[in-house]
User: Fold this.
Amino acid sequence: MYIEMTNECQMRCRHCAVNSKRVGHGRYISTADAIKALDLRSKNPLLKSVAFSGAESTLHPDFLRILRHAIRLGFGIGVVTNGVNEKIALILAHWARRPIGMRVWLSDDQYHDSAMVSKRVVETYTRLAKLPLKRGAYGVAITGQRHVLTRMGRAVRLKNVQYNNDRCCQGNIAAWYVRTNGMVAVCSCPKSRTIGHIQQIEDFPPTGFGHEINDQENNR
Ligand code: SF4
Assistant:
């Protein structure tokens, strides 16, 4: 499951596939919707993985509260951050070293505006990424690593593409993409079909395939 925490970001990357808005000009998911999505998915142990997406998810005023809830429920967790918020970026790096099943990626490569990120954040992630992990800890990673850069390069060439395979569920029927407005889509693709609002969903209806497109149900 993906939870789109906000569509705002402090950076203005050329390759941004989500067309992020400037801070103060976007939307945020309500804390109640994010918590409901986690509670619902936690009922099925096979579906307990969550990626906090955005644009920049750490901008959400309740980001740490929602993250703690996911940790308490035993989710496998993924977070990508641009690292601009030093305090949260450092908290994430240290939490990801704990045996709680959380992976944190720092967006630090030639495509991001690294000048906005403190030296302390970059050094911390660089150092922690090299250390061995305890069992149950997923650790930190940096997008500047070779295998990730390859994907970033493709995103740059496909600037603001609507269907970016690196973000797409590729038809995974268990995928949920919970948008900032609380609507649950079957994929992150902007025109993917929605299955209802998170506050109205009480079970796991068949979601169909991510590439089924229904323009009338496009809520973005
Ligand atoms: S940091 Fe990520 S979300 Fe923000 S503008 Fe760059 S690519 Fe988009």
